[in-house]
Amino acid sequence: MKSNAMTHIRKALSLTTACALVFGLAACDQEQNFGKTGKGIDSAFGTSGQQQAAEQPLADAREVLAANAAGDAALAVRVKAAISSNPSLRSVAVGVNSDNGVVTLYGTADTPALSHQAAMIALNVAGVRSVKNEMVIVKGS
User: Fold this and answer.
1) Mean of the pLDDT values across residues 116-138?
2) What confidence tens digit (pLDDT) does each residue in 1-40 have?
3) 58-141 adopts what CATH topology?
């Protein structure tokens, strides 16, 4: 009788272990499907909160870069207008570039004095931190 009882216990234990494995694997499959469902919901209604939090610094950096680029372009326009408005510099062909308040002057001037005068006018425009004078002296330009 004892051997018959032991056989039943072993069978019951094996059956219990097999059921636990089947339910465990089924639960693993349910977690995977649940995860896929969650991703589907996120994609249907936009990105998840974690993705938005990760993307926010990038969006902020893009806004700062765009604002800096717009500010640099406006500064370059103001510098060019200031140089062009000076009657003695109307003969000077000047191009202006700006990067974070650092203005670079390109172009040609008849004399070093005219090139220097253009740089001094640029330096006095509000928002200019420094001026790089890359102008070339060409007689009769």
Assistant:
1) 95
2) 556 666 667 666 666 666 566 566 665 555 444 445 555 5
3) Histidine-containing Protein; Chain: A; (3.30.1340)
Q: Provide the CA 7 distance to its chain's centre, in angstroms.
A: 69
Burial degree of 110 (CB within 10 A; 0-12, 13-18, 19+): middle
Task: Give me the residue spans of the domains in the chain.
Answer: 1-46, 58-141
- At residue 110, φ and ψ (nearest 5 deg) are -70, -40
Confidence (pLDDT) at 74: 92
Q: What is the 3-state secondary structure (H, E, C) of the chain?
A: CHHHHHHHHHHHHHHHHHHHHHHHHHHHHHHHHHHHHHHHHHHHHCCCHHHHHHHHHHHHHHHHHHHHHHHHHHHHHHHHHHHHHCHHHCCCEEEEEEECCEEEEEEEECCHHHHHHHHHHHHCCCCCCEEEECCEECCCC
**pTM exceeds 0.85:** no
